[in-house]
User: Fold this.
Amino acid sequence: MPWIKILHIATLVCWCAALLYLPAMLLAGARSRGTSSFDLPVPIILRFVFTHIATPFALLAIVSGTVLFIVGQIAASWLVLKLAAVSGMVLCHVLCGGLIVRLEQERLRGLVVASALIAIVSAALMLVVLVLVLSTPFEA
Assistant:
């Protein structure tokens, strides 16, 4: 069971980092209108990060978390709140994907505001998850 916790925490940290990075890159991409200091344009880099980094880490975090509460037979009230917050993070993840498509299509109207809101909501949900997990008693 300890290795499942380690996997869950590691993948969750990586997913959260990507979930904060994606809106920041969306903001940069919307402001620079597709140019970047890299050889590739911002939308291509964003799509790569979303599909090859953020999404696999999100799936691993969710699967390992599910395995944790099934194997550990955890059925506490805090878990419902945590799952609601994680569902919100999943929604933010999906919205980032939608904004990446909008950036690729150069439909930039409202992209800056939407990216900023996603970043704020994602950070708030991550904080909720952290508080819920740290406020639970340690289990054997």
User: Anything to note?
Assistant: The helical segments are 2-32, 42-71, 77-104, 111-134.
